[in-house]
Design brief:
The chain is α/β, with parallel strands linked by helices. The chain has helices at residues 21-40, 46-77, 103-133, 138-159, 167-180, 183-211, 216-244, 249-252, 266-272, 297-301, 313-316, 332-336, 362-371, and strands at 5-10, 13-17, 81-88, 91-97, 281-285, 291-296, 325-327, 347-350, 356-360.
Length: 391
């Protein structure tokens, strides 16, 4: 999920928001302004309804951020590297570099999110009661805190549904992994449960749109569609990860690459390089060979012909912080989840001092997956297995 606006570092973790967060604020704000608060407090003015709704919507987004921070902090404590947190249209995502290596850590990371939301719901519930007896707070505080209490409890309950990619799906995966010792099978079951729940939500949303008033059905269908897509992608990643287990980035990367200086014009680069090579990815490097951006063929083609002479590659390239990077000895399975966004699914391989030495593309991974040995390669062996005999 690409970050539109960075919010700095929280406990050392980069936090950002996608433009989709504005949709959350808008929908929640409008729903409270025109639907909920006028029923709860009919004597208020429209301005009072709108201001209270805006505060409630912003605090709901903050609650989602706290939920994701809890995942990230526990994951970091369990030894999983966190690249950042991004809030978007359907909530938030903590981007992890790698996966939990034991059922216990998987369970802890998954369960802390709903527990945090439930805790927030209790806190806001207490504040709602306090606001009712503290005259200086008054009805606006009761309205805002009351909404946040119910919203966080609903968020906790919904997230505990045993279906990926919800937290409950991760809990289910951890429990099955713990019981069977087979992480891949546990993840597959969780993903299939997520796809089933997603289809059910789509059906329920369509029925609500057809037979009931309001846009709630559209929201349900959108959530269901996302769940079907995410669960299907997760199941496919499980299959791919099983086939590529043990493979290092150096075995996949292409070290036949063409780099470019950031200051080169697009027109010059097309004439001198693009038309003479069959590459689709061009890392931009400084005088020391370190990554300073990534230009892809799609980004180069998007520049109008009459602007190519005056446009520098650095103006159209992905910023270095938006480019997935890896080391040559890193397991390719840990890189897979980071290959998305601005770079068109490409990742850049760096040496120990940060110089560019290769590129990994989806085509490289697909080619290796097609030729991968189909031998058993479970990265999470059943308890009691002798690791020294596994290859």
């Amino acid at each position: 999920m690409r970050t539109t606006l960075g919010l700095g570092r929280w406990f050392g973790i980069p936090v950002g928001v996608n433009i989709g967060v504005l949709v959350i604020i808008l929908l929640v704000g409008l729903g409270l302004t025109y639907g909920v608060f006028p029923i709860w407090f009919p004597d208020w003015s429209f301005t009072a309804h709108a201001l209270a709704a805006l505060v409630a919507a912003l605090l709901l987004v903050f609650s989602i951020l706290v939920h994701e921070l809890s995942h990230a902090l526990v994951a970091r404590a369990m030894g999983v590297e966190i690249e950042g947190i991004t809030l978007w249209l359907l909530g938030g995502v903590a981007q992890m570099r790698g996966e939990p290596t034991t059922p216990r850590s998987d369970l802890a990371i998954a369960a802390v999110g709903p527990a945090t939301s439930l805790g927030l719901g209790i806190v806001f519930g207490i504040l709602t009661g306090a606001a009712g007896v503290i005259p200086i707070w008054g009805e606006p505080a009761v309205a805002v805190f009351g909404f946040l209490a119910s919203a966080n409890i609903i968020l906790a309950v919904f997230n505990l549904l045993p279906a990926a990619p919800l937290d409950g799906g991760r809990v289910l995966r951890a429990a099955l992994w713990w019981g069977t010792g087979d992480r891949a099978r546990a993840a597959t079951i969780s993903a299939r449960a997520g796809r089933f729940l997603g289809l059910a939500l789509i059906g329920l949303g369509i029925a609500q749109l057809l037979f009931l008033a309001g846009i709630g059905g559209l929201w349900l269908a959108l959530i269901g569609l996302f769940m079907v897509h995410a669960a299907s992608a997760e199941e496919e990643q499980v299959r791919l990860g099983a086939r590529l287990h043990g493979v290092r980035v150096r075995e996949v990367m292409s070290n036949s690459l063409v780099t470019a200086p950031p200051q080169a014009s697009v027109a010059e680069f097309i004439g001198d390089v693009v038309l003479r090579h069959r590459f689709s990815t061009y890392p931009l490097v400084d005088e020391y060979g370190r990554l300073s951006g990534l230009a892809t063929l799609n980004r180069i083609r998007s520049v109008p012909a009459d602007r190519r002479a005056d446009t520098r590659l650095e103006e159209i390239a992905c910023a270095p912080e938006e480019v997935p990077t890896a080391t040559a000895d890193e397991p390719i399975t840990e890189l897979l989840s980071r290959m998305y966004g601005c770079s068109d699914g490409r990742a850049v391989v760096l040496d120990e001092v940060g110089r560019v030495i290769g590129v990994v593309s989806p085509t490289d991974i697909s080619r290796l997956a097609l030729a991968a040995d189909l031998r058993a390669a479970d990265p999470y062996p059943p308890r009691g297995a002798d690791l020294n005999t596994r290859r």
